Amino acid sequence: MASTTPADTPPAPPVPGPGSRSTGRLGDKVFLGLSKGSGILLLVIMASIAVFLSYRSVIALSDNEGNFLTTFEWNTAGDPPVFGIAVLLFGTVVSSIVAMVIAVPIAVGIALFISHYAPRRVAAPLAYVVDLLAAVPSIIYGIWGALVLVPYLEGLNSWLDEFFGWTYVFEKTEIGIPRSLFTVGILLAIMILPIVTSVSREVFLQVPRMNEEAALALGATRWEVIRLSVLPFGRSGIISASMLGLGRALGETMAVATVLSPNFLVSLHLLNPGGGTFAQNIAAKFGEANEFGRDALIASGLVLFVLTLLVNGAARLIIARRKEYSGANA
Amino acid sequence: MKLQRKNGLRAAALGALVVSGALVLTACGSDDNASGGDGGGTKPSASSNIDCGDAKGQLRASGSSAQKNAMDLWVKNYMAACPGVQINYNSSSSGEGIVAFNQGTVGFAGSDSALKPEEVADSKKTCQSGQGINLPMVGGPIAIGFHLEGVDKLTLDAPTLAKIFDSKIKKWNDPAIAKLNEGVKLPDTAVQAFHRSEDSGTTQNLGKYLNAAAPDAWKYEPEKAWPAPGGQAASGSSGVAAQVKQVDGAIGYFELSYAKSQGITTVDIDTGGSAPVKATSENASKAIAAAQIKGQGKDLALGLDYATKADGAYPVVLVTYEVVCDKGNKPETLSAVKSFLGYTASEDGQKILTEAGYAPIPAEINTKVRETVKGLS
Predict the structure, then answer these.
(1) Is B197 part of the contact surface with chain A (CB cutoff 8 Å)?
(2) Nearest C-alpha neighbor of A186 from the set A227, A230, A141
(3) A118-163 pLDDT, tens per residue?
(4) Do B1 and A261 touch (CB under 8 A)?
(5) Is the model's pLDDT at A30 over the cut of 90?
(6) Considering the domain boundaries, does residue B294 fall inside one?
(7) Could you tell me if B111 and B221 lie in one domain?
(8) In terms of Cα–Cα distance, which of A41, A277, A30, A330 is closest to A138?
(9) In this predicted structure, what is the pLDDT of residue B71?
(10) Residue B316 resides in a domain
(11) When comparing pLDDT for B119 and A13, which is higher?
């Protein structure tokens, strides 16, 4: 889509031009008021959500008999109530890392293929299909994961266990079908593939033609062109695309809740069934939770909220820096 | 850039159109449903014994999904007989139902376990002059389903079951299992025990059984969350049943209806009585008959006898309650609550439970439920 609008010059505006600001007409005033109001409303909503979350979290945290950060247990109905996010934080981060390790190289590969290798006739449909992956609801990924992916991964898991068991990470010490953090990571990788691919693709398409042609003129092969001009130019773009994907992986709920066999243990044996993530834990516990249990879940949600905020913030920062860089060059 | 923004606007306008269109359509839809419901009333149904009293208006209720199928049947029959009343049972979960009840947003709640003392204390705000009470309404067996190639009949007792679910027994040809199953050829398959990943009343009731019938082997408090460290989890009874069906060597627990619909073989329980007992509605009723009422005053919370050795009594059972105020029910829904619960506790109401894979409440207790329902205010 963006590839068809390379023109940077603004087309002649058919309606009141940018020069005629504030004509004092009623329409202008109303529109200004409406848009300003919407902006303020959004901020008010965000602020009240934050206040609500913090307020409920504080109630739960003040009655928690365990350590919120280090307790390996979630028993809010117990007497006294005990809960901690250690397992959830670990599971969320580990499954997302697995997803990133798998998804980013593949996504960059697809993006490069679409932007630099595939003939236009293939590239457009392929890009469309990848984007389509993002339109599949996550519960469908979950059901597919539980019913199709999990049984098929049994072979891969025993292979990994046999040949890479010495790495500790791939050592399977417990019996059970692969409803593990590793499987969740694979599923998440598929789910974040479209966003990482499409953002990377856009960045690769923006590589200045001059740079590529200069490399070609120096006798570079296509791979060398990519290595010398495309990848260096797109590096920050790939990073920010990955961060956006990471943000999605961290917060994924239904797919994880359907596939994972959760427990409250931290284990680096990624193939063992077990573990848990923030969102999965909330989905699993919210229904039967009492008032206090809900406050506790909200507190864990707040941690996820902050984590996602940090990741997305980092992504924005990198994108913003890249913009300046490319703007200076263009 | 300009071009794209324009497209965006157009897309937004289109989106708004679609949304408003959908709203209009759904609005029409609900109207149609309402009139359809009225139309159903003109057709006299089999359940003509329902006493509508002066009930009318809308009755909202919420709670346990374990009694969902029974509620669906009851609501359908009741609304056919009493077209003036709209009953809306939201089968979310016991926890949600009790929260909603204590906030005063529902007429009654359904729950897998009796109210806890602190929940009763909370209920005094809603029931201004009284407090929340438990009315046992639906019973049912919790089936223990298994999947083991070459084995289609399996008997277990409470201690063995506890050790299996506590990951103490790891192979199906363990001597403890073999002793209970003479003549059955048990394979050397690994035991894969599945439990519910989310908090559940079914888990809690299984825990109560194991705790009462095998106190030495099962030392965990019966909680809605799975207490033991090992084993694998799946979400919902349907999820556990799906895993048991799929995995060789699996064992799990769920309501009997899931075992029936998925064709999963269930474990017979050796209670120490004359013969192992099958998981059926009738056998569950026999076990519930051994229960004592442990609630005070109008509260009819049951103390089940999980260690019962009575012939043909299947001890792994679950009783769901309807939670109402003994006094101080909301005046606008009081007559609907009394009329509807009067029907569910009636002979007709209890009779249809067996069809749905549940077990009726034994007559002696049920009589008290009916009296209590009549006396609600």
Answers:
(1) yes
(2) A141
(3) 998 999 999 999 989 888 999 999 999 988 999 899 899 999 999 9
(4) no
(5) yes
(6) no
(7) no
(8) A277
(9) 92
(10) no
(11) B119
Residue in the block written with tokens 């009296």: B371
Kindly report the average pLDDT of chain A as a whole number. 86
* pLDDT < 50: residue spans in chain B: 1-6, 8-9, 11-47
Does B273 lie in the same domain as B148?
yes
Residue B279 counted as domain residue? yes
Q: Which residues of B touch A11 (CB under 8 A)?
A: 2-3
Range of the domain at B273: 142-288
Interface membership of B142 toward A (CB under 8 Å): no
> Distance of alpha carbon A108 from its chain centroid, rounded?
15
Q: Give the residue with greater pLDDT, B123 vs A8.
A: B123
Q: Where a domain ends, among B247, B270, B288? A: B288
Nearest CA in chain B to A75: B225
With bands split at pLDDT 50, 70 and 90, how would you rate the model's confidence at A34? very high
Provide the pLDDT for residue B29. Answer: 38
- Kindly report the nearest CA distance between residue B323 and chain A, in angstroms: 16
Task: State the pLDDT at residue B3.
Answer: 45
Q: Between the CA of residue B273 and those of A300, B277, B307, B308, B310, what are the distances in Å?
A: 48, 9, 10, 8, 6
Chain A: nearest CA to B101, how far in angstroms?
A: 12
Chain B residues near residue A34 by CB distance under 8 angstroms: none
Whether residue A80 has a cis bond before it, omega within 30° of 0: yes
Count Cβ neighbours within 10 Å for each residue of A58-91 and write b for 16 or more, e otherwise: eebeeebebebeebbebbbbbeebbbbbbbbbbb
Give the span between the Cα atoms of A259 and A277, in whole angstroms.
12
pTM over 0.95: no
Amino acid A288 reads E
Count how many pairs of residues, chain A against chain B, have C-beta atoms within 8 Å. 83
How many whole angstroms separate alpha carbon B361 and alpha carbon B284? Answer: 10
- Please tell me whether residues B97 and B165 are part of one structural domain: no
State mean pLDDT over A208-234.
91
Q: By CA distance, what is B244's nearest residue in A?
A: A177
Give B-chain residues touching A10 at CB under 8 angstroms: 1-2
For chain A, say whether B248 makes contact (Cβ under 8 Å).
no
A288 closest CB neighbour out of B4, B94, B232? B94
| Structural domain count of chain B | 2
B88 and B168 share one domain:
no
Percentage, residues of chain A above pLDDT 70:
90
CATH number at residue B176: 3.40.190.10
Flag whether B326 is in a domain.
Answer: yes
- Domains with residue ranges and CATH for chain A: 89-284 (1.10.3720.10)
Residue B181 has a pLDDT of 93
* pLDDT value for B342: 92
